[in-house]
Design goal:
about 250 residues; about 45% strand; four-stranded antiparallel β-sheet; mainly beta; about 10% helix
Length: about 250
């Protein structure tokens, strides 16, 4: 079954898989100390990363995937997000994509992204404009050869523009605000680069594409199981995604 881990070639399905990858991370990863515990960053290769979490009592409490890509987006960070039931080392940022110069509170649209090393950003001031590498882990992904094919497939009823973004994690199906907000989005964009990659640790394949959407560029990763169509440069993609991001500057 496809999940966030399999989006970067880690076929995590059982508690045994979780323990195995966490142990590999502890043995081969980089330890990063924070006031509330430690992160262990394990770069598996081809951009695939796992981030383990260890509390002050040295217990493993979490394991999150990330993709270390090259897509960059300017984001006006305006709020920190933590959620009941998550660990002390989990967290997210609420912000605006492509904010106006010097105005982090206004941009193209608001959205939320989770970050695997949230507690390493305790010292940054908010509001602020930062450059963020955003990775979108596909729950469902449809690819089209070009804009003409995309529009033809969507000719019945309404459709999203070829570059569009809906921050679906900010509201419930009835339109009410989601509290706390989630790092989910629906977007459409143009493929700038793409490749079928293989996770060096597991040998499992996954798809990658750098996509230009409304507001900036995003790295998209997907388990082949959720892929419909063929990714090609200059093509169009549309899908449902979970967003993970890291601050670059």
């Amino acid at each position: 079954m496809a999940n966030h881990m399999s989006s970067i070639g880690f076929p995590l399905q059982t508690e045994k898989d979780f323990v195995e990858y966490a142990n590999r991370a502890a043995a081969e990863g980089e330890f990063i100390q924070t006031a509330l515990g430690k992160y262990i960053r394990w770069p598996a290769g081809e951009g695939a990363e796992l981030w383990a979490q260890v509390n002050p009592e040295n217990d493993l409490i979490g394991l999150n995937p990330h993709f270390d890509g090259s897509a960059l987006m300017r984001v006006g960070l305006i709020e920190r997000v933590t959620r009941p039931g998550e660990t002390e080392l989990d967290g997210a940022f609420y912000g605006w994509a492509d904010p106006a110069e010097g105005k982090p509170e206004a941009g193209t649209y608001p959205f939320v992204f989770d970050t695997p090393n949230y507690r390493t950003y305790e010292e940054i001031s908010i509001p602020d404009v930062r450059t963020v590498n955003v990775a979108a882990f596909a729950h469902d992904l449809q690819a089209y050869a070009n804009e003409k094919d995309y529009l033809a497939a969507r000719k019945e009823g309404w459709h999203l523009a070829p570059q569009s973004f809906i921050p679906s994690g900010l509201f419930n199906p009835d339109g009410s605000p989601m509290d706390p907000p989630q790092a989910h989005a629906i977007f459409t964009g143009k493929v700038l680069q793409t490749a079928k990659l293989s996770n060096p640790v597991t040998g499992k394949p996954f798809h990658w594409a750098m996509v230009r959407t409304l507001g900036g560029e995003i790295d998209v990763v997907a388990d082949p199981e959720v892929m419909n169509g063929i990714l090609i440069e200059e093509g169009i993609v549309q899908g449902l995604f979970w967003l993970s991001g890291q601050l670059r500057s």
